[in-house]
């Protein structure tokens, strides 16, 4: 069996420095956590049962683990990130309504009705009630002010100074509203922007439809069994309802198969995320994953040996030397040669691509609805003579 990676390099360095040979014991694919009967699974279980003299890991240092195995000097400090697929722009056929919120659109329609009523009232007072019917006056004023709202030319003159004042106020309001709308819509259509929905642990917990993928039998999963309150209590309940635990040896493959499907978020150490980034970019030339800026569960990571074993002191000295000279950092960088292109992702992703029918079908539906309504009105007018 061939071992590679920074921890494999550490093992080779220990073997050369301490002059020993080794054989690799095949485990069950887990790091190690206590079981219901008091035993431990994973690599920690192998060391505890003395089936192995050294657990390479590295393993997160916790008090519970320190009661059954010995930890060497920490190799590094690590935190967990939320790894999700890079968001892509989805068709938004109703985007032409996006510049304004629903409340603003309601206020615009209400303003149209109010201005129509005010103009009708002023004209009725100035000319007298006897001229024309109230019904035709309402429709005529409504169409006229709606034409003004759409910036169409209208051959119409307000009656009296009050009528002109109402028209002037409506023109100014329409000018501000329509210029704001057209500018915002142009900006939205020119460049599609996609916000990052899951940028922290709280973001992932807030979506009940999201499946949480994490390593099984880790220090975190052991802690979650007793967590009752706070963010970790919330995480424990979420993992119980919609969590998916996989073996440590299968995490990278799970990232490539589950995350692109959508609806999944993975909890992974930074070095593991970098490995996913680098390998995927080496194969495809794309950055299809996003690493959250929010982090959680900080731990020191070490090699494990049997408790009170003299090998621990010897390993400590070598780890201190490798860390002090920056050798281990170089090893991790060699493991992820193509990480720099994908490492820094903007919080807002921009896309430039032509619009297809799936983006604009609502506009054509709106047009078709207007034409059908006009046809019905026209047919009604013909029928009524």
UniProtKB/TrEMBL annotation:
One of its GO terms (molecular function) is ligand-gated monoatomic ion channel activity. It is a multi-pass membrane protein. The chain crosses the membrane at residues 96-122, 168-191, 360-379. The keyword Phosphoprotein does not apply. It is found in: Cell membrane. Its main location: membrane. Gene3D superfamilies: 1.10.287.70, Periplasmic binding protein-like II. Residues 3-334 form the Ionotropic glutamate receptor C-terminal domain. InterPro entries: Glu/Gly-bd, Insect_Ionotropic_Sensory_Rcpt, Iontro_rcpt_C. The keyword Transport applies. GO terms for biological process: detection of stimulus involved in sensory perception. Keywords: Cell membrane, Glycoprotein, Ion channel, Ion transport, Ligand-gated ion channel, Membrane, Receptor, Transmembrane, Transmembrane helix, Transport. One of its GO terms (cellular component) is plasma membrane. Residues 1-49 form the Ionotropic glutamate receptor L-glutamate and glycine-binding domain. Belongs to the glutamate-gated ion channel (TC 1.A.10.1) family. This is Glutamate receptor. It comes from Petrolisthes cinctipes.
């Amino acid at each position: 069996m061939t071992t590679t990676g920074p921890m494999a390099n550490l093992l080779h360095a220990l073997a050369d420095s301490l002059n020993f040979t080794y054989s690799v014991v095949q485990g069950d694919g887990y790091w190690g956590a206590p079981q219901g009967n008091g035993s431990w699974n994973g690599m920690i279980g192998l060391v505890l049962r003395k089936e192995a003299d050294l657990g390479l890991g590295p393993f997160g240092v916790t008090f519970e683990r320190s009661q059954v195995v010995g930890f060497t000097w920490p190799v590094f400090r690590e935190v967990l990130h939320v790894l999700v697929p890079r968001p892509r722009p989805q068709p938004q056929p109703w985007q032409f309504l996006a510049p304004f919120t629903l409340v603003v659109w309601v206020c615009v329609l209400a303003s149209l009705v109010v201005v129509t009523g005010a103009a009708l009232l002023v004209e009725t007072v100035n000319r007298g009630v006897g001229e024309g019917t109230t019904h035709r006056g309402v429709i005529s004023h409504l169409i006229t002010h709606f034409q003004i709202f759409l910036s169409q030319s209208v051959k119409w003159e307000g009656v009296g100074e009050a009528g002109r004042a109402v028209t002037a106020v409506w023109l100014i309001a329409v000018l501000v509203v329509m210029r704001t709308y057209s500018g915002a819509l142009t900006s939205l259509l020119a460049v599609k922007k996609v916000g990052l929905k899951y940028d922290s642990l709280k973001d992932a917990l807030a979506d009940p439809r999201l499946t949480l993928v994490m390593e099984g039998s880790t220090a975190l999963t052991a802690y979650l069994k007793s967590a009752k309150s706070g963010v970790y209590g919330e995480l424990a309940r979420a993992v119980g309802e919609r969590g998916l635990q996989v073996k440590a040896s299968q995490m990278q493959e799970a990232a490539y198969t589950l995350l692109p499907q959508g609806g999944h978020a993975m909890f992974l150490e930074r070095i593991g995320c970098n490995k996913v980034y680098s390998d995927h970019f080496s194969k495809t030339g794309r950055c299809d994953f996003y690493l959250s800026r929010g982090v959680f569960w900080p731990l020191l990571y070490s090699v494990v040996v049997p408790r009170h074993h003299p090998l621990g002191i010897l390993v400590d000295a070598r780890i201190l030397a490798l860390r002090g000279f920056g050798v281990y950092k170089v090893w991790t960088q060699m493991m992820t040669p193509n990480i720099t292109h994908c490492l820094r992702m903007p919080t807002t992703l921009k896309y430039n691509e032509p619009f297809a029918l799936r983006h604009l079908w609502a506009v054509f539906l709106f047009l078709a609805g207007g034409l059908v309504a006009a046809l019905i009105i026209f047919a009604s007018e013909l029928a009524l003579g």
